[in-house]
Here is the input.
Amino acid sequence: MHKRLQLRAKTAVFLATVAAVAAVTVTLASVTVGNAAPATAPTITKQPFGSVGGQNVDIYTLTNSHQMEVKILTYGGIIQSVKVPDKSHQLANVTLGFPTLDDYVNLNSPFPAGGPYFGPIIGRYANRIAGGQFTLNGTTYQLALNNGPNTLHGGIEGFDNKVWTATVVPATSSSVGLKLHYTSPDGEEGYPATLSVDVTFTLTNDNEIRFDYHATNESASLATIVNLTNHSYWNLAGEGSGTILDHNLQLNADHYTPVDSTLIPTGAIDPVAGTPLDFTNATPIGARIHDNFEQLLLGHGYDHNFVLNRPSPTDTSLIQAAHVQEPTTHRILDIYTTEPGIQFYSGNFLDGSLVGTSGHTYRQSDGFALETQHYPDSPNHANFPSTVLGPGQDFNSTTIYTFSTGPK
Here is the structure.
């Protein structure tokens, strides 16, 4: 099992042992494929979920031997539902989402009003780019603007509303997976170069959801920028159950990137010590969210990139980034990543206008997001880790969400 986030840990390195691979049953569209397997073996099923733009959309359900269940749409690579046990072994969905495809198409990221981005793959560039502009090799590129004066989460037609091609990853005795593929053409949303993207979701018997991101710049001459993440919202007490302000959060980050009035980083990397952004010790999310602190006022709460503690700026080892515990159900979420930053968003703009999968409306701070990624607006800040992907180069990144329960 993974070690908990230690106080001000600098390099909480994740260690994992891969179980021996064995042939098991994979269920697709209620048809069993392969040899017989124990009833508790991990499984994956597929069902139709509607269509958009003449393209069929499917929903895949991954279930491990402990009955943890993850539902993934081929539309946007959206994680619609994640059911995990509490301290009494009762399962509940702990991620926010919509019940229908129409809701995702019409409400999740529509322009110009904006949407919550419940659960999708975000790209080509997660988070914000100032003025929608960046320069590579002397050429300035203009992206579509969809967040005031800035570009957010890839633009008007980002990866979150594309239909991805799905391939089932053969199940083993300890895991089951799904690989999604999308090719973003040169010039899409203003981004240069053709980008081939694979995202593999793996559900393990350790109650982990593993995200493996792989992208290839297929251009022979053009560089591009890449920043991929998953944008799930979590409520460990259960989706639709109310506020997440009582969740205890700990971040392996001594610094953050302060923002301006449009939530673009200023370029500074400031210490969290002495501010309401200090989560180096486990602290309820709501303990200081209403403090009269400029950064909280600008974001209407937490909407900030935290700089993960790493031994060097170039380190890409898998480290623990966050630890969250809900005090009633005792559910725990631990996050490990190879990324340099994590964006903590406290659901500030949920306003009661959206109805989720359980039929409950989502109000402010009814869910939180912890998005592992590179820093916002990195192409315009030379002191931030680079997001440039040269011609023919590959991008690889891994993030793991681990669910468990523990003492209060």
